[in-house]
Design a protein that fits this description.
The complex is a heterodimer of chains A (about 120) and B (about 110). Chain A has about 120 residues and is an all-beta fold. Chain A contains no helices and ten strands. The N and C termini of chain A lie far apart (about 35 Å). With about 110 residues, chain B is mainly beta. In chain B, about 35% of the residues are buried. The chains are: A mainly beta (about 120), B mainly beta (about 110).
């Protein structure tokens, strides 16, 4: 596709439910990132996939959060047993490579609301 | 670990006035530094980046930033603000290709007519 695509654009769920957020990166991009954006907190790094290397999961806030990337393309971020503090915009980004100065291309995000 | 601090969560300037958004970084190794911008209802996009070449970096829409190692700063400036510059601006740092891009908390710029 022309850009990074995220779905759904909005997700409302009840506390305790599991949710899956999807990211389709730009074709050919080898690096993929998940960030969380909440008011006053800026962009919080969650997880980073770089080619075939083991992902950097150092930003995941708890073991309720997990992500996978299948076939080096599509990625799914899963939040189990959602809590109200999980409410935020979840942003996905991809880059052509994993070089130092690579430009990240961001999707429009998934607005998650946990009631 | 690397980090960036953006001073001021909200900056308001008059149209035509100087824009100055502050960013200080912390890194034990020479960093690459970035400014990203998020216009209302749009995704983030790269404004400019410093990658150890020229210390004064020019970006899109008339913005520029200067890397000052002695001050560990990478402030973003624009001589004359336009209404269309109203957005949220994020400073970010990276120290290697194996580490993720780390963002600051952002500064929301308002431009008053």
């Amino acid at each position: 596709g022309a850009g990074v695509s995220q779905s759904p654009s909005n997700k409302v769920t009840e506390k305790g439910k599991d949710v899956e957020l999807r990211c389709d990166p730009i074709s050919g991009h080898t690096a993929l990132y998940w960030y969380r954006q909440s008011l006053g907190q800026g962009l919080e790094f969650l997880i980073y996939f770089q080619g075939n290397s083991a992902p950097d999961k150092s930003g995941l806030p708890s073991d309720r959060f997990s992500a996978e990337r299948t076939g080096g393309s599509v990625s799914t971020l899963t939040i189990q047993r959602t809590q109200q503090e999980d409410s935020a915009v979840y942003l996905c980004a991809s880059s052509l490579g994993s070089g130092f100065g690579e430009k990240l291309f961001f999707g429009s995000g998934t607005q998650l609301s946990v009631l | 670990a690397q980090s960036v601090t953006q001073l001021g969560s909200h900056v308001s300037v008059s149209e035509g006035a100087l824009v100055l958004l502050r960013c200080n970084y912390s890194s034990s190794v020479p960093p690459y530094l970035f400014w990203y911008v998020q216009y209302p209802n749009q995704g983030l996009q790269l404004l400019l980046k410093y990658t150890s070449a020229a210390t004064l970096v020019k970006g899109i829409n008339g913005f520029e930033a200067e890397f000052k190692k002695s001050e560990t700063s990478f402030h973003l400036t624009k001589p004359s603000a336009h209404m269309s510059d109203a957005a949220e601006y994020f400073c970010a740092v990276r120290v290697s290709g194996n580490t993720p891009l780390v963002f600051g908390k952002g500064t929301r710029l308002s431009v008053i007519a």
